Amino acid sequence: MPENRNKYAPAALAAGALLSVLALITPQSEIVISVIIRLMAAAIALYYSIKLREWKLLLLMAMYILMSIRQILTLFMWIGLIETTGSSRFISELPGFLVTLLTLITIIYIGNELSRERKIILKQNSHIDKLSGLLPICSKCKRIRDDEGYWKQIESYIEQHSETQFTHGLCEDCADELYGNEKWYKKMRDDS
Questions:
Q1: pLDDT tens-digit map of 81-102
Q2: Which of 20, 72, 143, 156 has its CA 20 to 30 A from that of 9?
Q3: Radius of gyration, alpha carbons of the chain
Q4: Residue 110 sits in the same domain as residue 176
Q5: Which keywords appear in this protein's UniProt record, sorted alphabetically (predicted)?
Q6: 85 and 117 in contact (C-beta within 8 Å)?
């Protein structure tokens, strides 16, 4: 990591020196410094947009450039290079309007992305409590082999791996098999 910091140190020193000189010789130095900082930020956004292949960073770059243009136009009006008229004021405000539109587009995009990510997370969370995959089950006793190799009753396995709880009863076939010869059972069946 220190190598990367040293790699950019000369550029940072040069930028700092340039800003210091401009602050001394320019009547509206704060605007010039602000423009230079925004243009540097635009260059950094462009660099990372290319490096990360992330087009959304180009919106940031465009915003920084538009803000710089607005400040340059304002500076030119202040020092008299552009005559201050209604149309020149409108033109100097236009980049600010475009920045506002780009910001709105960015906010909408980020909102949609967050909403999409939230839906994915909710969908993933809803599947957490569901069992999936292949379960080794005994053909005779219907016990399930867990990850440690132990055979467990199907009820305890499912209760441990989900939020399901069991109650017990008997289906008609099993009730007939267990109690089919009992008088009380035959009577109960005949009555129903």
A1: 888 888 877 787 888 778 888 8
A2: 72
A3: 36
A4: no
A5: Membrane, Transmembrane, Transmembrane helix
A6: no
